[in-house]
Amino acid sequence: MTYIEALTEFDGPGPSVFLAGGISGTFDWQADIVARLADLPLVLLNPRRRNFPMDYPSAAHAQIEWEFRHLQRATAVLFWFPPETLCPIALYELGGRAQIREQPLFVGTHPDYQRRIDVEVQLKLARPEVAVVGTIEALAAQVRTWFESRTQHPE
Q1: pTM of the full predicted structure?
Q2: Per its UniProt record, what InterPro entries does this chain match (predicted)?
Q3: In whole angstroms, what is the distance from residue 37 CA to residue 44 CA?
Q4: Domain that holds residue 78
């Protein structure tokens, strides 16, 4: 596994997964996903930064631009919606990614996420093949299954 953290640029070969979802005010679920997928030869693109200078407006611009570029570059996108926040930016990003049928989506919402029903119904309408799961374990399992199917049936 190759780990890329914002703001490091990635434009390389190989399958990559962008870790989209809650960051501010949430537990570090990205670290859990990274640990669960560490044995796969994937590139994991993590927007959560260990050191984020909140006092500098330019840092926010750079972060948003990095996320925008890497959401587009990623082979697939994983979304996790934790219960601590509504994740308005992640919802916006999910809406955009749901329109791109060529990009695999993996979506999970904590059972206590306040907008779970919205995520489930909207995705059922836009991308019925995307199964919304309720745990990080199940989300990682979806990525693993997708990756294994890619290696068995290369494009």
Answers
A1: 0.94
A2: Nuc_deoxyri_tr2 (IPR039470)
A3: 9
A4: 2-152
State how many domains the chain has.
1
CA distance 18 to 27: 18
- Contact of 94 with 107, CB cutoff 8 Å: yes
What is the C-alpha separation between 154 and 107, in angstroms, rounded?
23
| CA distance to 37, 62, 72, 80, 116, per residue, from 6 (Å) | 19, 9, 14, 18, 27
Q: Which of 16, 24, 56 lies closest to 143 in space, CA to CA? A: 16
Q: What is the CATH number of the domain that holds 114?
A: 3.40.50.450
User: What residues have CB less than 8 Å from 120, skipping those under 6 apart?
Assistant: 109, 132
Give the model confidence (pLDDT) of 60-98 as tens digits.
888 999 999 999 999 999 999 999 999 999 999 999 999
pLDDT in tens, 26-52: 999 999 999 999 999 999 999 998 776
Q: List 54's β-bridge partners, or say none.
A: none
CA distance 70 to 61: 14
